[in-house]
Design goal:
By secondary structure, the protein is of the alpha/beta class. The protein is about 45% helix and about 20% strand. It is found in: Cytoplasm.
Length: about 400
């Protein structure tokens, strides 16, 4: 009976798994090592450096993403670039404008198809999250942006007096909403971006006093948390034309966290994708920089970063080729996956091409081994005789 116990347990487990697949669909339970899931589907952010820092080539589909930082640091710009990229791939997007501050003209300049972008400007936090939940559960969305968590004001606070205390209302609202929508996001493959603001905790003497609004639920449910900061100004002569931006991936369930990326945000244009390609291209060796000149293969891209950036902007096919080579070199995204597969195949082919030892070689090796063995015996015998002498 004891001998059959492992077989009985394995059979019982197989029956249970078959019943679960029948009731809830194939793949409801699987072994962690099973390679049945496709590679992570992503939405590019518009910055190649940020896509690389995320480790999977963009924002993961079916997950919660939080983007937070100080005012005017580029939070909404990054979110709108992701919306534009999702639309370019044929997807649908929605924008919950709780701050009532979305600029359609700026969104259009970033590449957003404003005619097909679903926009809601809700009155209360409950209304905003209910609309988001219904849109996500429809299964027709690829990406939804909630801007911002701080503006999701509970109805009780709006209806109350100005001095009333409403401790924990927003945190409870966020916790309830995230419990509902997280499963729906995974089932429909929709990416939810929550834009958040920073606050300072009073009386903190050790560590950073900065914290985000909306309680702790979003920190737990987010698969990716991005901290975005403005670190410098971009100038054309005396005129400021943009910001140098630094991003840190402070939480990442899809790849190793704490990666850092830097990119340029130009006023009226958004993230400079071409500038990021030049920076990463030089770092990876895909693009060569000699003095002020940038060169790719036999093509001279231009003298100076600005001219080279404009050249890539005018030649999108060349820019796409450079981007693919950068991602392949860094092992990120689909190009990186293909490069790894090709390297593995080449290594396997090299191992298979090793010539097997011929029969003559094996025979010669055996003879040499036997000769060495006889020589060893002779030495041992001589040693014994010498000892006796």
């Amino acid at each position: 009976m004891a001998a059959n116990q492992p077989q009985d347990r394995a059979k019982a487990l197989s029956l249970a798994l078959a019943q679960i697949d029948k009731n809830f669909g194939k793949g409801s339970v699987m072994r962690l090592g099973d390679d049945t899931r496709p590679p992570v589907a992503v939405i590019p952010t518009g910055s190649v450096a940020l896509d690389v820092a995320l480790g999977v080539g963009g924002l993961p589909r079916g997950r919660v993403v939080e983007i937070y930082g100080p005012e005017s640091s580029g939070k909404t710009t990054v979110a709108l670039h992701a919306v534009a990229n999702a639309q370019k791939a044929g997807g649908n997007a929605a924008f919950i404008d709780a701050e009532h501050a979305l600029d359609p003209e700026y969104a259009r300049k970033l590449g957003v198809d404003v005619d097909n972008l679903l926009v809601s400007q809700p009155d209360t936090g409950e209304q905003a999250l209910e609309i988001a939940d219904m849109l996500i559960r429809s299964g027709g969305l690829d990406i939804i942006v909630i801007d911002s968590v701080a503006a999701l004001v509970p109805k009780a606070e709006i209806d109350g007096e100005m001095g009333d205390s409403h401790v924990g209302l927003q945190a409870r609202l966020m916790s309830q909403a995230l419990r509902k929508i997280t499963g729906a996001l995974s089932a429909t493959g929709t990416t939810a971006i929550f834009i958040n603001q920073l606050r300072e905790k009073i009386g903190v003497f050790f560590g950073s006093p900065e914290t985000t609004t909306g309680g702790k639920a979003l920190k737990f449910y987010a698969s990716v948390r991005i901290d975005i900061r403005r670190i410098g100004a971009l100038k054309d002569g005396d005129q400021t034309v943009g910001n140098r931006t630094k991003v840190k991936v402070v939480k990442n369930k899809m790849a190793p966290p704490f990666k850092v990326a830097e990119f340029d945000i130009l006023y009226g244009e958004g993230i400079s994708r071409e500038g990021g390609l030049l920076d990463l291209g030089v770092d990876t060796g895909v693009v060569r920089k000699s003095g002020a000149w940038y060169t790719y293969g036999t093509d001279q891209l231009g003298q100076g970063k600005e001219n080279s950036r404009n050249f890539l902007k005018d030649n999108p096919q060349l820019a796409a080729e450079i981007e693919e080579k950068i991602l392949a070199a860094l092992g990120v995204g689909e190009p990186g996956r293909r490069a790894k597969e090709e390297a593995a195949k080449a290594a396997q082919a090299g191992a298979n091409d090793q010539p097997a030892q011929s029969e003559e070689t094996k025979t010669a090796s055996k003879k040499l081994a036997a000769k060495a063995k006889r020589g060893k015996k002779a030495e041992d015998a001589f040693g014994e005789e010498g000892a006796g002498f």
